[in-house]
Amino acid sequence: MSSWFPSWFTFPTFDVSIFPNLQRKFFSFVLKRFLGHLLKPGQLDVEQIDSAIGSGNITINDLELDCTVSLPP
Question: For the segment 27-41, what is each residue's pLDDT rounded down to a tens digit?
Answer without folding.
Answer: 889 888 988 888 888
